[in-house]
Amino acid sequence: MRVALAVLFVTGTAAADPDVTRRLPDDATTTLAGCWRVRGDKETWTFTATADHGLEVVRELGRDAAEATRARIARPVMFSTKDHSFAFAAAGRIHGLMAIFTIDHAALHASWFSTHDGKSYFFTGSNVVADRCKH
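RESULT FIELD:
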C-alpha cells in the first residue's frame, strides 16, 4: 500500500481514490501540527493546518543551499484511510522523493521512496524517525 499511496499522490489520481485523501482526521491534524525533527539529523518537518482540514509540510534541511531551497516548498500531506498512513512529496538532490509515515505515540516513523520518472516509486532503503522539536 505504501508504494501505491506514493503513486496515487504524485500522479494526481488521489482525488479519484476513496482511500487516499488530503482531508486528515481531526486528531491527526492536531497531533501532527508543529515542528518535528528527524533523529540524528538537522532536518525538520513543520506541519501547518490548511483551510480544507488538511496539512501542509515544509522541510528544513539545515544543509546544502540548492537542495534546501527546494525542500522549503510547502507540500500537501495525504492520508490513506485504508492503512492510516500519511505521505508528502519532497524534492530530493536529483529525483523526486516521497515520505510515507505513521504516527506511533510521540514519534513519526517514515520510509523514503524515490522516483526517476514521476510515476513509479521504489523504496530507497531509508527509514527515519522524527520526534517533536525541542525549542
